[in-house]
Amino acid sequence: MNLTDTIFVAGHRGMVGSAIVRRLQALGYANILTAGRDALDLTNQHAVNAFFAAHRIDQVYLAAAKVGGIHANNTYPAEFIHQNLMIEANIIHAAHTHDVHRLMFLGSSCIYPKLAQQPMKEEALLTGLLEPTNEPYAIAKIAGIKLCESYNRQYGRDYRSAMPTNLYGPGDNFHPENSHVIPALMRRIHEAKLANAPEVVIWGSGTPMREFLHVDDLAEAVVHLQNISQERYASETEPMRSHINVGTGTDVTIRELAETLVEVIGYEGRLVFDTTKPDGTPRKLMDVGRLARLGWQARTSLKRGLNETYTWFLAHLGAARV
Predict the structure, then answer these.
(1) Residue 170, preceding bond cis, omega within 30 degrees?
(2) How many of the other CB atoms lie within 10 Å of CB of 314?
(3) Which residues are annotated as a binding site for NADP(+)?
């Protein structure tokens, strides 16, 4: 760790990027470089190259991305694949061009095949068909992994990739249609509490199992991965010095998640599971053995993390990304 390094955090206003900035600040890094959309269009190759030329950057955390839930992915597939491909290609190539040796690329667990063996190991990448609803986004994230691998192989760079499981926490997107499961359920149950609604209807049987990681845990994990030696990282990722799963290694049913949210929010109505609606993939759990061997494991329990997220949601209700 060199606390005087200039570190560019791309996507610093998003949930993941802002958590990485908080973590770096807590560790004492003094030169954290950021740029909002109004100052830098990451899909513009010329602008990104000029930005790297104007700053002496030592490390990059590539957390910028176009993200959304199933509805958004299914509705805007062209935007999801195009914007994500442009962002990662521009930043990774500019980092190489301007001799930035260390970069951390943030991906997603959706890179794995829809029917991957559970828990999903890193070796499952490209062994089967992807989930159709978010295939364009997943392909863009796979391309980001392969970009890092390729610059490592051809130019000897130290570009690493972290693939987080389902994330939640402060700064999440609480849009009623474009959000992920935790912020979507949190908002609906909160609104049902305010309206004294007798019930909240949830799609599916409640039996699918999902893994959830607090975003501050993710930030801690990726900064840890960025700072271990190249030799130690390579010991777990050779021959391609590829990606590492980041998760808790445990999962809960959607019913258990909803019941915990009811407790956290203080809703007194009942949950109704609409079994006429689809369940989706029965289980999505990450194998985090490599991460554990590299010296890190998650610390935030789901209930504690949900309490913190709900507190943030209440404090930022007017300005939350809704």
Answers:
(1) no
(2) 11
(3) 11-17, 106-109, 141, 164-167, 180
Which residue stretches of the chain are H helix?
Answer: 15-27, 45-54, 70-75, 77-97, 135-155, 181-194, 215-227, 230-237, 254-265, 289-293, 302-315
141-176 pLDDT tens trace: 999 999 999 999 999 999 999 999 999 999 998 887
**Of 137, 151, 168, 233, which residue is the catalytic one?**
137
Backbone φ and ψ of 22, nearest 5°? -60, -40
Judge whether 285 and 118 are in contact, CB under 8 Å.
yes
Please list the ranges in the chain whose pLDDT falls under 50. none
Task: Report the distance separating Cα 221 and Cα 213, nearest Å.
Answer: 11
Structure tokens, 93: 């190539």
Q: What is the pTM of this model?
A: 0.95
- Based on the residue annotation, tell me whether 310 is a catalytic residue of this protein: no
Please, what are the domains in the chain?
6-315 (3.40.50.720)
CB 237 within 8 A of CB 192: no
Query: Residues at the annotated binding site for substrate?
Result: 188, 203, 210, 279
For residue range 101-145, what is the model confidence (pLDDT) as tens digits? 999 999 999 999 999 999 999 999 999 999 888 899 999 999 999
